[in-house]
């Protein structure tokens, strides 16, 4: 006797397999969903210094396209991490600032900066150790 196959569309799992994590359960993955996309962390770094206008952000983030910067800013706004204030002026003035919730990411950015500085010192020390000494060829 042949086993009965489930009807089409029933092949997908209906819930997490015991022992597996459901998507979004890992706090690190969740954090990376927010700050992981390219440019997002650097935008946060700039806004931790205070309110910025679009042009100021673009000038400090060398290489970011206006389209990408706009997308990242909109995503951060939708997540409640920054506010976008439009002033009724000609030409229009738009300013971006971190919300209280957005400022909580400062500890992560600071930790990344500290690690980067330590890694740079480590790399410089490693380069000195690998450099040939005078008289060696």
The CATH architecture would be Orthogonal Bundle
Low-confidence stretches: none
Structural class: mainly alpha
CATH class type: Mainly Alpha
Concise overview:
The chain has 137 residues and is mostly helical. The protein has helices spanning 27-35, 40-48, 54-60, 66-78, 100-103, 106-130; strands at residues 52-53, 82-87, 93-98.
Which SSEs are present, and which pair or pack?
Blueprint: H1 27-35, H2 40-48, E1 52-53, H3 54-60, H4 66-78, E2 82-87, E3 93-98, H5 100-103, H6 106-130
Antiparallel strand pairs: 1-3, 2-3
Task: Walk me through this protein's architecture.
The chain is built from 6 helices and 3 strands; from the N terminus they run H-H-E-H-H-E-E-H-H. It has helices at 27-35, 40-48, 54-60, 66-78, 100-103, 106-130; strands at residues 52-53, 82-87, 93-98. The protein has a 3-stranded antiparallel β-sheet with strand order 1-3-2. A hairpin with a 5-residue loop joins strand 2 and strand 3. The longest helix is centred in the C-terminal third of the chain and has 25 residues, at 106-130. The chain is flat.
Key attributes of the depicted protein:
3 strands, 49% helix, 137 residues, mainly alpha, Arc Repressor Mutant, subunit A, 3-stranded antiparallel beta sheet, 6 helices, flat
């Amino acid at each position: 006797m042949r086993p009965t196959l489930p009807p089409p569309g029933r092949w997908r799992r209906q819930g997490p397999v015991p022992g597996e994590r459901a998507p979004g359960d890992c706090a690190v993955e969740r954090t990376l969903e927010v700050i992981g996309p390219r440019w997002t962390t650097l935008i946060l770094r700039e806004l931790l210094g205070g309110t910025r206008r679009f042009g100021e952000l673009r000038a400090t983030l060398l290489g970011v396209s206006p389209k990408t910067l706009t997308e990242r800013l909109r995503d951060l706004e939708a997540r409640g991490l920054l506010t976008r204030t439009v002033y009724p002026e000609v030409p229009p003035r738009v300013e971006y600032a971190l919300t209280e919730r957005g400022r909580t990411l400062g500890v992560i950015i600071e930790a990344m900066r500290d690690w980067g500085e330590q890694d740079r010192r480590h790399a410089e020390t490693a380069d000195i150790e690998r450099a040939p000494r005078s008289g060696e060829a």
